[in-house]
Amino acid sequence: MRYSALNLFREGLTGHKNWPHAWRSPELKKSYDVVIIGGGGHGLATAYYLAKNHGLTNIALVERGWLGGGNTGRNTTIVRSNYFFPESAAFYDFALKLYEGLSTDLNYNIMLSQRGMLSLAHSEHDLEMMNRSCNAMQLNGVPAKMMTAEEIGKRVPSLDVSKSVRYPIWGGLMQERGGVARHDAVAWGYARQASALGVDIIQNCEVTGFDIEGGRVKAVKTSQGTIHTEKVGIAVAGHSSVIAGMAGFRLPIRSYALQAFVSEPMKPVLDTVLMTPATGVYISQSDKGELVFGAALDLYASYAQRGNLPVLEDTVAGLLQMFPNFSRVRMLRQWAGICDVVHDSTAIVGKTPVDGMYINCGWGTGGFKAIPAGGYTLAHTIAHDDPHPLVKPFSFERFKTGALIDEAAASGIAH
Ligand code: FAD
Ligand code: PYC
Question: Whole-model pTM above 0.85?
Fold first, then answer.
């Protein structure tokens, strides 16, 4: 089908009856070379790079709900690589570079908007820490700059930069390449290309267990039947401990709800992504004009994917400290996703204690920005049975050796 203006108009009038499906919906086969669990961004990207970079196409991707229905479709779409340690900087900047070429690579517009990511300092201490982060980023080859309060006031005129507010602004750390990307498009773009390369995407297919013999995975049990395979990639975000439990190992993870909110749409008022450690609030404005914002994790571990009222109240209070003129804006909706948090705020990507089983998890509140690199490196790890160099430091082994990478400050959200 050609995407001419006339065709778009005709399809709009006829209920999209001739609209081509973006990906196939095949029957599940009895065996595959690789099974990927989880149809979020990380699982879909893994399947895509396995097919594209490693020539493995006899793959099933199984998703218990619908593609992107987990955190990939629930996040606030911020992409950035302003991390502190060299290992994280290398990984997240690789992710951002892949994002920069992703619309072309997937031939699908992911609406990447590099409008700048600005973290605000509200005390001398914040400013010193941000100076350190800025220096670290530059040393790691990631462009960044510090901004004064005056420069910030000019860049974000709607922000209250006066000295009389509860959290006066002392300056900020800017990554100009940071920004936002359309989250659904990332999932759909990877799905479309993975499917075109031969990956079988199976929705409404829940993994319920594994057959493991002599320490090696032999089959995945699902709500649609057993799939025989020697290689399994796990990318299930908020339910990693549940799947690990089915395979007989434990992860150093606690799972919390993280909420987000959108306002009614408004005319353009904010063209930079802002994050403020003092209140934990972050905010951007979507292309539709909605304010998209959120703050800290809920305070207690839970799998209840809805969030609670006290965090909502704190978030709105923090937002109004920054933007008193938003006080009459109406909130449109609220939602939550479950985030798997590791105590050093760094993900786990690599081999598991079960041979042939590989995992990508523990992104906490910040794995959307990681999707292209998470998929790329997990695909390499599965194809070679050897961790990609970028994720060697993110291995499961680090909890034995003690080589933790504490990125709590860079996570932006209180962890
Ligand atoms: P998901 O997209 O959650 O995919 C995992 C999939 O696994 C799900 O679809 C689920 O249904 C499936 N699954 C689970 N169990 C099974 C099973 N037994 N069988 C089959 N399938 C199963 N990150 C950022 O970088 N920037 C942000 O601005 C940002 N904002 C966020 C805001 C909120 C409110 C939340 C909740 C998260 C935010 N994040 C952000 C984090 C980010 O969304 C996640 O880290 C990322 O989307 C994880 O992707 P994923 O593919 O691993 O997981
Ligand atoms: O990692 O940038 C991030 C983020 C913003 C909101 C939630 N996570």
Answer: yes
